[in-house]
Design brief:
The complex is a heterodimer of chains A (about 260) and B (about 70). Chain A has about 260 residues and is α/β, with parallel strands linked by helices. Chain A has one domain (about 5-235): TIM Barrel (Alpha-Beta Barrel), CATH 3.20.20. In chain A, about 40% of the residues lie in helices and about 15% in strands. Chain A has helices spanning about 25-35, 55-60, 75-90, 110-125, 135-145, 165-175, 190-195, 205-210, 215-235; strands at about 5, 10, 15-20, 40-45, 65-70, 95-100, 125-130, 150, 180-185, 200-205. A five-stranded parallel beta sheet of chain A has the order 5-4-3-10-9. In chain A, strands 6-7-8 form a three-stranded parallel beta sheet. In chain A, strands 1-2 form a two-stranded antiparallel sheet. In chain A, helix 3 crosses helix 4 (about 110-125) and helix 7 packs parallel to helix 9. The relative contact order of chain A is 0.14. Chain B has one domain: Roll (Ubiquitin-like (UB roll)), CATH 3.10.20.30. Chain B is globular. The chains are: A alpha/beta (about 260), B mainly beta (about 70). The interface of A and B includes residues 70 and 85 of A.
Chain lengths: ~260, ~70
């Protein structure tokens, strides 16, 4: 497959990244990930359950996908930096999807803590993929800190509301030379297509696939949506007009 | 000695990190596990030489499903 996405010097044949949480069961997750075409899948870092079963995601997915650990749930730069370090140790990767959330209800990033953590982690040699607001200024600051990718949200995590501020996403894509990955808020395939049409380099989503009535079919739809949006972006859309412009020729119209 | 293990009080008979990992049936040959003692990451290469002290907070983590 032709490479369509490059992050931190590594190239991938899919611009879609998928999460591994919330599927009805393990087999549906595996089938959905296959159908999505994703090559990068996200995982969290959590305490080993010392009393329960210990299925290994590394053994289940590690051979087939690049596992991208996140710092989901961290509320401070300190916790996020420690979690990233543990992830690097556990998975042998210096890639991290950096999340530092400000509150549990919106899961919006705490920008102050996020920038602090991004600065520390880039300084420690991490390839930081930073989940952030759809705010061009914050995105630019993350890029300037040396993040490998900047990941503005389309809408709150798990909300399925789509891309609430497409103008900001387009502005962010236009301003940054760092890859922009639309992360969070995607509800259906047209949202994923829209992200690519706006100029994003990729899309990261989880709930929209995992919680769909038919996750495997939705995963395929997301694959097609991302591909369609990427193709449309490359093709160059027509400008928007306020009035009609006839597509059939005026010449030779009967009765004239 | 008494330590905290993944956030819970834990008493164990031993002095070293590898004793603790063995007691918890953690397969040290497999990838995917990371350990911190008192918020300091212990690289796998140092597991064998790491000792524990009364009151230490030990975290043993692994990848889990996530978005």
């Amino acid at each position: 497959m032709a490479d369509v996405l490059t992050i931190a010097g590594e190239s991938f044949g899919s611009a879609l990244m998928a999460g591994t949480a919330g599927y009805p069961n393990r087999q549906v997750m595996l089938d959905a990930l296959t159908a999505s075409g994703a090559e990068i899948v996200t995982v969290s870092i959590r305490r080993v359950d010392l009393s329960g079963p210990r299925e290994s995601l590394v053994e289940l997915l590690g051979g087939k996908y690049r596992l991208l650990p996140n710092t989901a749930g961290c509320a401070t730069a300190r916790d996020a930096v420690l979690t990233a370090g543990l992830a690097r140790e556990a998975l042998g990767t210096n890639w991290v999807k950096l999340e530092v959330v400000g509150d549990r209800e919106t899961l919006y990033p705490d920008v102050e803590q996020l920038l602090q953590a991004a600065s520390t982690l880039t300084g420690q040699g991490f390839a930081v993929l930073a989940y952030t607001n759809d705010d061009p200024i914050t995105c630019q600051k993350l890029a300037d800190l040396g993040c490998a990718a900047v990941m503005p949200l389309g809408a709150p995590i798990g909300s399925g509301l789509g891309i609430l501020n497409p103008y900001n996403i387009e502005t962010i894509c236009r301003k940054l030379t760092t890859p922009v990955i639309l992360d969070a808020g995607i509800g259906t395939a047209s949202d994923a297509a829209r992200a690519m049409e706006l100029g994003c380099s990729g899309v990261l989503l989880n709930t929209a696939i995992a919680r769909a009535d038919d996750p495997v079919t939705m995963a395929n739809a997301m694959r097609l949506g991302v591909a369609a949006g990427m193709a449309a972006r490359a093709a160059g859309r027509i400008p928007k007009r306020l009035y009609a412009e006839a597509s059939s020729p005026e010449l030779g119209l009967i009765g004239s | 000695m008494d330590i905290r293990l993944n956030g819970e009080p834990h008493r164990f008979q031993g002095m070293s990190l590898i004793d603790l990992l063995a007691a918890q049936a953690i397969d040290q040959t497999k990838p995917g596990i990371a350990v911190a003692i008192n918020d300091a990451i212990v690289p796998r290469a140092e597991w064998a030489s790491a000792t524990l002290n009364q009151g230490d907070a030990v975290e043993i983590v692994r990848p889990h499903s996530g978005g």
